Amino acid sequence: MKSPLWAATDSDNESDETSAQDVVIAAYEFPPYYSSRMSEHFLGEIVYLLNNMQSEFNFVIREIRPQERYQAISADGCCDLIMFESPTWGWPESGEYEISPPIMHGSERMYSLQSESWEPGPEDRIAGVVGYHYGITNNTMNNVDVAHLMPIYRTDSQSTVLTMVRNHRVKFGLLSDEYVRWLEVNQPERVVGIIPAPEADSVYTTNIILGPASPVDMDTLMVHILRLGQSTYAATLLEAYGLRLVTAEEGGACVAYQHVMANFECTPKKEDIKPRSLRKHQ
Questions:
Q1: Would 1 be classed as within a structural domain?
Q2: Backbone angles phi, psi at 80, to 5 degrees
Q3: Is residue 184 part of a domain?
Q4: Cα separation, 140 vs 229, whole angstroms
Q5: Mean pLDDT per 10-residue interval, the chain, length 282 residues
Q6: Closest by alpha carbon to 80, among 101, 104, 59?
Q7: Is the domain of 179 the same as that of 253?
Q8: Strand partners, 22
Q9: Are residues 74 and 118 in the same domain?
Q10: What is the DSSP string of 158-226?
Q11: Domain that holds residue 268
Q12: CATH number of the domain that residue 40 is part of
């Protein structure tokens, strides 16, 4: 059995988990989706809700480094699946993994303390995160020596990237717009004076990628996820983390699983389980 490093549990959860099968979710530093440096993160909220809406599976989170994610959910890896991941971020084209329809919108761009020029010169330093894929480097994961690609100073986290920009150690920092939106609500002092580039470096949608050894199949998992998306507090939770779902009109997961969802009563109810962050502050 795969050994989780972190599990979303709560003293109010009275369900009997002794017979539940662990489902290990790989997660790397990618706020606001997941961060060990944040007291609350979106993935933790999702795991808490999943574990409170059913008793067949016990979802847990195992932290990994970004560059380890491909091995992590392989047949002999430590984990069963990864959430909020784009298949364009270095995933091999093989039948080993199962990929869900798109779930979330996302984008990354350069941020700076200046707005005079967004064309980095040969002496300008750009900071990014090790293991991340950026449009400016043609979606390569690590530093490259190819002359026509812009070299990136790689750090351990987006938080460090932001600190380097604020301390004038680099001219440009590559940050996700989701992370900056979350900071604007929760830590606005950190983004005062930080200016976004007018054009995104990359625009993406994120999915769930399921490994070959996962005890939960994609259909079962997506039904649970979609039911969460239609709950009373889903919109509030998404707004709190600055996230936006891919809608049915945009080809989101609701379209692919509409035939399955028809078997459930998905109208939001007052007894919907509240996310931990909402319960805590009421």
A1: no
A2: -100, -30
A3: yes
A4: 33
A5: 42 54 97 93 95 95 96 95 95 87 95 94 92 84 51 92 97 97 94 96 96 95 86 83 85 69 44 44 41
A6: 59
A7: no
A8: 58
A9: no
A10: HHHHHHHHHTTS-SEEEEEHHHHHHHHHH-GGGGTT-EE-SS-SEEEEEEEEE-TT-SS-HHHHHHHHH
A11: 6-105+204-280
A12: 3.40.190.10
Contact 66, 35 (CB under 8 A): no
Rounded to whole angstroms, the Cα distance separating 246 from 19 reads 34
Q: Which two tokens stand for residue 226?
A: 């979609």
Strand, helix or coil at 90?
A: coil
Cβ count within 10 A of residue 64: 21
- Burial of residue 168 (CB within 10 Å: 0-12, 13-18, 19+) is exposed
Measured CA to CA, the distance from residue 208 to residue 192 in angstroms comes to 33
Same domain, 112 and 235: no
Q: Which two tokens stand for residue 23?
A: 């489902």
Last residue of a domain, one of 197, 213, 241: 197
Q: Rounded to whole angstroms, what are the CA distances from 121 to 117, 147, 150, 151, 258?
A: 9, 13, 10, 11, 49
H/E run at residue 112: strand 104-112
